[in-house]
Amino acid sequence: QDYNNKDKIIKIGSETAKTRETRILPISPKTAKHLQRLIDIAKTNNEEYIFNSTYGGRINTLNVIKNFEKYGKQAGITNKQTTPHQYR
């Protein structure tokens, strides 16, 4: 419901946004195409979320952060933080 395929925008609600203000983000046609594919897959599998954990259900934020740290170490990036925020 936060994605508008026709206008190619994503709405970030105030309850989620860092600034606590609703934002509208335009996305490229290519990104919209891939996002729609993920939405269609989730609907086909009766999933509530489009990005799911390996075990099903919503991805835990802490697990994402830990994975960035793990893969950063594997890549030899040890002198810098390897967080999702660093790569956004």
Shape: globular
Number of helical segments with 4 or more residues: 3
Biggest sheet features: 3 strands, antiparallel
Task: Label the structural class.
Answer: alpha+beta
Indicate the percent of residues in helices.
25-40%
Outline the low-pLDDT stretches: none
Strand content: 5-15%
Could you characterize the architecture of this molecule?
Strand 1 and strand 2 form a beta hairpin. By secondary structure, the chain is of the alpha+beta class. The protein is globular. The chain has helices spanning 29-44, 61-74, 84-87; strands spanning 3-4, 9-12, 23-26. The chain contains 3 helices and 3 strands.
Brief overview, please?
It contains three helices and three strands. With about 90 residues, it is an alpha+beta fold.
Topology, element by element:
Elements lengths: L2 E2 L4 E4 L10 E4 L2 H16 L16 H14 L9 H4 L1
Antiparallel strand pairs: 1-2, 2-3
Key descriptive features of the protein:
3 helices, 88 residues, 3-stranded antiparallel β-sheet, alpha+beta
